[in-house]
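Archive transcription. Copying these from loose printouts into the bound notebook so they stop getting lost. Printout 1 of 2:
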Amino acid sequence: MDKATVISMCGKAPVVGTLLRKIARRYPEGSVATIRNGPLRGYQWRRSHRYVSGYWLGIYELPIQECLTRELRPGDVFYDIGANGGFLTLLGSKCVGPEGRVFSFEPLPENIRSIRSQLELNATENCAIVEAAVSDRQSTIAFCGGKDTSTAHIVGTKEAEDGAVVLSVDTTSLDDFVQRAAKPDFIKMDVEGAELLALKGARQLLESDRPPRMLIEFHGEQLKQDSCALLCEYGYSFHSLDGRTCGGIPEERHVLCLPPQCKA
């Protein structure tokens, strides 16, 4: 068992986790840490108490990090849809290398500022920030800030938390976006209930001669069933984060979706 896994397991223990979070909050807002664990070991991270400490510790969602590290290839075009603070954008940048390209989709201004800061801090040159939410069309919509930066969402896709700030943001569909940018080889999607909308706006991409591999976090069982039914129309198969074929749709929230020409 590697060090990052051990630290992650300790952080999930109630007493130890509370203690670690108290220690983490002693660091000044905006201070810079060197990530010492996980695939991004050696990268720089500008701390913000808005985001989980797992980012700068390098232990954030290790199974997702391992999936991306396994699936992303040098030279790939990676879409990080719902990029939050930019941690997985950085990981994608590392995985696809200087010949690859990363598009980081994020509509929330404070998240955009974090992504830009992390990219500048690491002198990352293969990433572009797309200041928009991904939906089924190009438009302007109401966007709920959520209880924290990771749960912001399009109004109507899930219930708004009490006191959440609602702002107006631009949206794009994937079919519109690929008309002016490189097509994705791999998509990571975490859009807090807008998964089906995003997929409905990608039908041309899904039926193209090079449909993308995708890692999608689903926010609700019915939403997962409906989204996977749409993907089945295009021959996609569904796999767990470690790449295992499940003979159906995995029970987990995170599903690796592979087009017919791909095998896990």
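Printout 2 of 2:
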Amino acid sequence: MLYSFEKLRKLLDEIAPTKDSLRKKYLVVEGETIDIKKIKDKEVLFEDDGIYAIFNGEKFRRYLYMPNYRVAHYENTFPVAHLIKCTKVTEIGRGYYVLGSKSSVDVIDRDTGKLYKAKVLAICSYCLTEIITDNSIPESTEDFFNNLIAKEIENKDLPKETDVFGYTLTPPFDWDTVSRKYRESKNYTCEQCAIQITDTQDYRFLHVHHKDGNKQHNHPKNLQCLCVLCHSKVDDHHADNFDKPRMKHQVDSFVAKYGKKDK
């Protein structure tokens, strides 16, 4: 018999309405890119330690980058991400930039119209020398995103709603989002055997493993992208779990298609 627990969930939301309030506050951790020409000065702050977007009176860290860039003209070189309003940004003018916070971005070649998807950008060298901060400085947009998520995850006051398996449900820390973003950051490649999954229908064959076994500890340093076969061999506990019919079927399906049975 299946139970929906709708009444219980409604009661819990009334007692401690964390889900909706946290959705409004924390979904902007990885916000959509924003055309800086279309926002008012009061909605973005250029400070010595970083660039911040203002949402409902709260500051959220962002970077600047050019979504349209002469990639081919500069010999397949992609734009850089700016952490502050550095000398280069001032020279070029902010009208060419958008605000971003994602681990990778799409870039369009300004001359050819070619779309380059999910590019990880390096950090501007001017920013690295001009930024004034006591915090560690990211080396790329991927590093920037991981630091951003880690900072929010390490907020000890943040309540977390979990499912029956212990996985967090509260956005943007819900396991579906965390797992997808982490696998995406690893280019859907197993960190153990290096097999890369390119068929979107087969992304299910890549799991995200918690190194310390704590399913709420979603810091990127605690995660590992593994194919189902490598995941099943992590330890005896995982071997037992993957011996169950549903998981065993997934491993068998993976082996049948990718031929890793003897590896």
